[in-house]
Amino acid sequence: MNGPWHSYVYAVGRDGGDLDAAAAALTGFGGAPLRTVAGDGLTALVSSVPADDFGTDGLTERMADLAELEALARVHHEVVEAAHARTTVLPMRLATVYLDDARVRAVLSERAAEFSELLSWLDGHAELGVKVYADPVRARAEAAPAAPTAGSGRAYLRQRRDQRRLRDDAYRAAGAVAGAVRDTVAPLTRGVVAHRPQQGELASGPGENVANEAYLVPRTRVREFHQALAGLTGSDAGVRVEITGPWAPYSFATRPAESGAA
Amino acid sequence: MSDPLTGPGGAASPMRTSPAPSPYGRPGAGPGSSANLADILERVLDKGVVIAGDIQINLLDIELLTIKLRLLVASVDKAKEMGIDWWEHDPSLSSRARTPATRPVPAGEDQPAVEGEAGREAGWEQHRREEENR
């Protein structure tokens, strides 16, 4: 039988009080207080969640609804971000739920060596996202009248060919910028993870996302990272570069291949 | 450290008194509240440490969720590669999926209808032409 409350884990860090301070300053789902659960030199940031809503059925139902999922994701993210602002943390994936704190402690013990190594690797680093967009519509608007005029099929086809050429140019330019981004930031980063390009209803802004990467950057070099890319943002009409973060090191919480210089 | 049973599980917990409809959101801006939802979802759902929790969400449901999200935040092309195309029959998604300027297509002559994305694009153009010639 499950109790009426489960333990939801947001992030794991080291012992030492930073997460205790974060817990005291924050609330979790439903405004519930946060607390820390310690074991084997590690500390988990936890809040109690109602078993009815955070059991298998409750979570499945909630996560299938985009509005509910957004609410879950934002609270989870806010707690992780606030903890990350104070200390090095491993963000947990959304919906990491245990029956009680004793189970959380047991997992900390089981994974202590791995988590400690990861925390050492991530120490003093943050994640920055870089998305490169091709914007052929904008490139096209600058080069030719937008709406196809009614006319012969041949004229229409010629127009379509021209549009496709412009589109291809925009994608080529975006690909070149994406490559330049990687080369430019390589000396400033400890690792890189490629996310899937964003496409669909939640993708933001004009154009199509052709590259979506996360970089692990020393916190002291975040400004330098931005400055290094300043020359690449907006250099081409058909290309847009968007930098996000600094994030907690979500994309590096499972250790990827290293890249760049230390 | 704290004991879960003496934690916030008391009768006065805000959990039980939170107003509907979505008690898990929070009023007021937090540090990450301005971040783009797609950026957050790809991180909290696709990244982060995966440890086996006690609460397991049904695998099939996770898969469905993942597919839905990939269509929302990630690549339609990838879904096509996986042989998934149900959004073509979903009116709320198909208009997006058919937006012509969303992916590169090799320059060249108009093609007859073929399999996949190129076929859909060709079909879309066919449709456009028929409309225009009307």
UniProtKB/TrEMBL annotation, chain A:
UniProt KW Magnesium keyword: no
Highest taxon above the source species: Bacteria
Primary site of residence: other
Key words, A-Z: Gas vesicle
InterPro entries, alphabetized: GvpL/GvpF
Subcellular localization, as worded in the UniProt entry: Gas vesicle
Pfam families (UniProt xref): GvpL_GvpF
Lyase as UniProt keyword: no
Protein family membership: Belongs to the gas vesicle GvpF/GvpL family.
Name recorded for this polypeptide: Gas vesicle protein
Organism encoding this protein: Streptomyces nigrescens
Automatic annotation (TrEMBL), chain B:
UniProt subcellular location: Gas vesicle
Biased composition (Basic and acidic residues): 117-134
Primary residence: other
Glycoprotein found in the keyword field: no
Domain of life: Bacteria
InterPro entries: Gas-vesicle_GvpA-like, GvpA, GvpA-like_CS
Keywords: Gas vesicle
Region span, Disordered: 1-33, 86-134
Family: Belongs to the gas vesicle GvpA family.
Name of the protein in question: Gas vesicle structural protein
